Amino acid sequence: MSGAGRAALVVAAALATATASAQVGTGGASAPSSPAKKALVQRILTLQQSEVEAIARNVVERPAAQMMREAGLAMQQQVEPDKRDTMGRAIEAEVKKYVDEAYPTVRERALKLAPSTIGSVLEARMSEDELRTLVAWLDSPANKKYQQIAVEMRNTFFQKLLAEMPALLDPKLQALDGRIRVILGVGPATGAAPSPQAPARPASR
Q1: Structural domain range at position 121
Q2: Using an 8 Å Cβ cutoff, are 45 and 119 in contact?
Q3: pLDDT over 70 for what percent of the chain?
C-alpha cells in the first residue's frame, strides 16, 4: 500500500470536513469548476484506484484480524496444544472465506463513493494548475518507484522496532497486568504478560 497515495487520500478526506466547516462559518466559495478540472480529477481517481481498493480491503480485514487475535488468545488458554494447529488452520480458512465474500462488495462501494467524496474535495478546493501538478506527481517515475519501495521500507522499520519492544514494554505490560488483576479481583498472573506482537497475518488473497 502506497504511503504517498494513502496520505493523499487521508488528507483529502480530512480536507472535506475542514472545508465544510469553513464554508458554514465563513460562507467561503469553492474554486470554480470546469470540464478540464473534472477530467483531471477523474485522472487522479484512476491513478489512485489501487489506494481506494487497499483502503476497502483494510476495512474488511481489520475486524477479522482482531477476531483472529482474540481467537489465538482463547486457544492458548483453553485448547490443548496438540489441537491448536488444526483449529488455527480452520479459523484462517473461515477468515479467508469471509474476506473473499466481503471484499468485492466493499470495493465496489468504495469506488462508487470516491468521486463524490475525494473527487468533490479535489475539484472544489484545488485549482486546475494544482490538479495538473498532482497528476504529474502521481504519474511520475519517482512516485511509482517510491510506491515500489515503500512497503519494504515500512516492513524493515517495523521489524526493527518490534525486535526492541520486549525489553522496553515487557516490564510495563507485566505491571499493567498485575494492576488489572487487582481491579478485577482475580489471582496473580501465572505467567508473563503478552509481549507486543506483529499484526495478525492477513487472510490469503
Answers
A1: 3-184
A2: yes
A3: 76
In a domain, 190, yes or no: no
Nearest Cα neighbor of 175 from 190, 193, 161, 202 is 193
DSSP state of 140: S
- CA within 13 Å, CB half, 46: 8
Q: How far apart are CA 179 and CA 175, in angstroms?
A: 6
Helix (H) or strand (E) run with residue 197 in it: none
**Confidence at residue 12, expressed as pLDDT on a 0 to 100 scale:** 45
For 47, the grid coordinates are 491513478
Model confidence pLDDT, tens digit, residues 38-79: 999 999 999 999 999 999 999 999 999 999 989 988 898 888
As a whole number of angstroms, the distance between CA 152 and CA 39 comes to 33
Return d(Cα 27, Cα 32) in angstroms, integer: 15
Helix-helix angle 128-138:141-184, to 10 degrees: 90
Whether residue 34 lies inside any domain: the answer is yes
Q: How many domains does the chain have?
A: 1
Question: Angle at the Cα of 136 (from 50 to 19), degrees rounded to 5?
Answer: 75
Least confident of 29-33, 38-42, 60-64, 104-108: 29-33
Place of cell 518507484: 145
* Residue 194 belongs to a domain: no
